[in-house]
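Incident log, entry 3
Record: Glycosyltransferase family 92 protein (332 residues)
Problem: checksum mismatch between cached and fresh output.
Input:
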Amino acid sequence: MCVQPVYYYTQWQNIVLYIEAWRAQGATRFIVFYHSSTKDTRKVLDYYEDLGVIELRPWPSFGNLPNDIAEKYPNIDNSAYIFAYFLALNICILEVKTTIGAVIDFDEIAVPRNGTTLDYATKEMTGTNVGALIFENNYVSMNPSIYTSDFSGVSSPTFYSKIGPQKFIFNASVIELCQVHHVESFIDKSKISKRSGGALLHLRFNVNSLKANTISKPFRFFPNNASHHIENMQETVWNKVKSIFGKTPPPVSLKSLNTFNICEKRSENQGMCHGATCKSDMDAVHEWVYDRTEGVQTIFGITPPSGSFKYLDISNQCDVRVSKQGMDAYMY
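Fresh output:
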């Protein structure tokens, strides 16, 4: 499992559910790129890293260009959020040591109708021309909300009629280049992406504001014995709090999420991506734990296993002023 760079993350309960659900679905390795989060979220990540469950990787500032050329090119940090998605997922895919892999966020679980996700994906991609399975987005909520640190509602999620962006699971040995929501190209050109019969359960923080109808669907977070997994999560959050938080489980404030969304809309109106441009806004509402790693080499090109160098085409995703020339300037 690859997790996109963690930016200003507050919902630590999502991480508890993510680890429990994906392990139940067959996942064995979690690579998490880290940029920033609340102190409580960082404590949860450190807890799972100390257990050997996840591998935390730094995703710090991209740094500055030399002074003599800095004015000629855009500041990559100002668009780092969207850049990070494309860079991190392709870097992580190169590091996946398992046959089956996925790049899916902390608030998303891909599930089949029956059995585990791993068994389903393995069956669909073994001895076939299927290189990736697409899981359609399904927004869900729970009652009670897990942000109260009560996970009892996980067994019966509420589904909403609104559609959203899909995610995919892939055969790691045949991937050449990926976008966030689809495979860009395969090494083996006979491979295809196939729509799965499963679902992407997407626990969006503002799902109740979607103004969508609730509907009934058969999908669940766990393939079996949901009560056992709920007990495990409750055990982690409540009985091990002293080792994680040193106090009762802290609440999650959505104020910072609203601040980020406001900044995002403002940035889009100015023709820019939301990235470091939001730092001053976010620092004003919360104390964040930033990754401070230094000496990280920044490369904006991906050389896939086929050996042909490719640039990630993000011109339709964010700041069009970030040109190929601008990316060339950051390569070293």
